Amino acid sequence: MDVFDKLTKPLGPRRIGTADQQRAAKPAAHQRQTIQTVLEHAVQQEQLGADSRRPVSTLGAQSHVEEFGHGPLVRCQISRDKKCVVVDVLRTFARWTLDFALPPRCPGCGAIVDEVHSFCPECWKQVEFLGSGGCRTCGLPLHATNIDECAVCLAAPPRIARTRAAVGSDDLSRGLAIRLKYGRKVAIARTMARYVAPLVDSVEGDRILVPVPLHRSRLWSRGFNQSALIAHELSRRLLIDTELFALRRIRRTPPLKGMSLLQRRRAVAGAFSVADPARVKGKSVILVDDVLTTGSTAEACARTLKRGGAVRVELISWARVVKPSQFMR
User: Fold this and answer.
1) E-only strand ranges, the chain
2) Which H or E run includes 29?
3) What are the residue ranges spanned by the domains of the chain?
4) pLDDT of residue 25
5) 6-37 per-position pLDDT tens digit
6) Going by CATH, does the domain composed of 130-326 fall within 3.40.50.2020?
7) Per-residue pLDDT reduced to its tens digit, 139-181
8) Which among 104, 122, 177, 320 has the fewest CB atoms less than 10 Å away?
9) 282 with 311: CB under 8 angstroms?
10) What is the rounded CA–CA span in Å between residue 134 and residue 145?
């Protein structure tokens, strides 16, 4: 007896009066086949489960029961989803445990804060955030003016098409840069990248991040390039490729601290070269630096990159000197 006969079987010994009435009560052949198909499909769904995401085969319900009884023939996607859920739960638990044991602290003063790589209220008030305002080319703040480009950039447009810095150079921002370079506090690079990332222009195109390089002797003594650490974190946040070795410092330059603008330009002249022109040819290069003072090093890098085939050079940095009196510090 098929499914249809089971479900349409009379409940009691009640008989219909005549043969004509019995034939009239029985559905037509095409109606019987349609109803039977619907009922078999319902039984099949009941055996396989009501999960609409699982594909239903064209085979009968019994064949599916046998396949699932002897083991699945096809690996389901649910197992991978379960693994992802377990990994996310473990990662969240590990993050909570780490935050409880080692709570996030302010990079400026060390006070406990709510979020990693963020400043406490006291340090926040001390930081001079520059943002995307100022001169549209060099980014120099233009307070109490209604112009969008400074006189220096209008008179002699620089090789760097756009320059932006997250904060102005002060005791707090300069202290972070010193702790990163000489104190080996490499986690500060993530703090810097967090505030530098919004300054990157969102223009579409073939762009790459290139850190301002160190000479190999200084790299060996320090162990890392602070600009490369910032560029690596920016690459992770912005999904822009980083070319760590596209630009090389072929000549060791003396420390530029305490030099005037002219002395800095002479010291870095001819100190850089493009390792492989194919890496920068036809691309927009975003130079990454930690502190911008006079811009002499960045200008020398931009000159070398454009000679190597770069169509555009921009510069982003953590801090920049705004007041000329701070050049010699």
Assistant:
1) 162-168, 207-211, 247-249, 272-274, 284-292, 312-320
2) helix 29-48
3) 3-69, 130-326
4) 46
5) 444 554 544 444 444 445 445 455 555 555 65
6) yes
7) 988 877 788 888 889 998 899 999 999 999 999 999 999 999 9
8) 122
9) yes
10) 10
Distance of CA 72 to the CA centre of its chain: 39
Determine the Cα–Cα distance for residues 319 and 167; give it in Å rounded to an integer: 5
Q: Give φ, ψ of 318 to 5 degrees.
A: -75, -50
* Section 214-227 average pLDDT: 91
What angle, rounded to 10 degrees, do the helices at 261-268 and 296-307 form? 40
Q: H helices of 201-280, where?
A: 216-222, 226-238, 261-268, 277-280
- The kind and range of the H/E element at 27 are none
Give percent helix, percent strand, percent coil of the chain, each to the nearest 5. 45, 10, 45
The sign of the dihedral angle between the CA atoms of 110, 115, 118, 120 is negative
Q: Round to whole Å and give the CA distance between 270 and 250.
A: 8
Q: Which of 143-147, 200-204, 308-312 has the highest mean pLDDT?
A: 308-312
Is the Cβ–Cβ distance between 119 and 106 less than 8 Å? yes
For the purposes of burial, counting CB atoms within 10 Å of the CB of 252, is it exposed (0-12), middle (13-18) or buried (19 or more)? exposed
Alpha-carbon distance values, 20 to 3, 16, 26, 319 (Å): 25, 9, 10, 98
At 142, which amino acid appears? L
- 237: its two tokens: 């946040």
For 42, 55, 149, 182, the CA distances from 65, given in Å and listed in that order, are 14, 15, 75, 68
Sheet holding 284-292: strands in order across? 162-168, 312-320, 284-292, 207-211
Give the alpha-carbon dihedral of 23, 29, 33, 38, to 10 degrees: -50
